[in-house]
Amino acid sequence: MTQALNQTALLTGGSTGIGAVYADRLAHRGYDLILVARDQARMEALAERLRGETGRTIEVVRADLTDRADLARVAGRFASDPTITLLVNNAGLSMTGDAISVDPVEIERLVALNITAPTVLAGAAGKAFVARGEGAIINLASVLALVAEMFDGVYSGSKAYLLNLSQSLAAQYGAKGLYVQAVLPGATRTEIWERSGKDVNAFPPEWVMDVDDLVDAALVGFDRREPVTIP
Ligand code: NAP
Fold first, then answer.
1. Which one of 26, 65, 80, 87 is separated from 32 by 20 to 30 angstroms, measured CA to CA?
2. Phi, psi of 126 (to 5 degrees)
3. pLDDT at residue 95 above 60?
């Protein structure tokens, strides 16, 4: 396991679900954290618990990553804070239908959160990390990136995009000290399902991963420096 004292991880979607478990695991590994999401109260509660358990410095940043100004503010952190050595691009959403059935506003929101935001953040982080010759980016894609026929193509396409981006950045900048991991979870029990009007319990139970198991398996891949991890 990597111990990361005096290093900071910036983690998007740090208020619940997969992001909240990454926050827990990274703080216990010694990272200071910058948690980014919209629900400040939830992040403050998590931060308070993790400060108490680990003694790490946990900063809470309220930002809507679909908002251009908020995104630019968060992206600016990589140039100004040399202690940040890890970006976890985790925030993401699923839609209530598909390209034909949903309001186009939902499509725009998904593209902004699942594609534009992680790309802008990976660009800003990558630039800083390559300049210092060291740093890592974890991109939460999905196993649906590989099976387009199983799900709405806007969501699965956004995750295929993130997989491509990860592999391309790794190929182009790996030799310059940038490590990029694409994590491809299967169905995992979090709020993303009810937020998009779906019932995760409709799947056979053996298809659904527990969020703690998912993150722990993904971090094994991180420690092994895997380019793509399917937990
Ligand atoms: P979740 O429980 O719905 O959590 C999503 C996180 O993203 C929350 O912290 C949320 O915080 C944040 N977020 C949502 N909209 C945001 C916005 N506009 N600006 C900033 N933050 C925003 O989802 P999850 O299951 O943990 O998913 C995490 C990642 O894993 C996503 O990229 C998802 O696509 C991917 N994934 C999930 C599964 C699964 O089955 N759960 C499977 C494959 C991949 P606020 O609401 O406080 O902003």
1. 65
2. -60, -40
3. yes
Residues 6+ apart with CB under 8 A from 52: none
CA of 13 to the centre of ligand 1 (A): 6
Distance CA 120, CA 111 (A): 12
Q: How far is CA 165 from CA 69, 87, 158, 231, in A?
A: 23, 14, 11, 19
The tens digit of pLDDT for each residue in 149-194 reads 989 999 999 999 999 999 999 999 999 999 999 999 999 999 999 9
Cα 10 to ligand 1 centroid, rounded to whole Å: 15
Which of 183, 190, 191, 230 has most ligand 1 atoms within 8 Å of CB, for mutation? 190
* Contact criterion met (CB below 8 Å) for 26 and 10: no
Query: Cα 69 to chain center, whole Å?
Result: 20
Question: Given ligand 1 and candidates 22, 25, 33, 38, which is best to mutate, with the most ligand atoms within 8 Å of its CB?
Answer: 38
Q: What is the DSSP string of 152-195?
A: -HHHHHHHHHHHHHHHHHHHHHGGGTEEEEEE---SB-STHHHH
pLDDT in tens, 105-134: 999 999 999 999 999 999 999 999 999 999
pTM of the model: 0.97
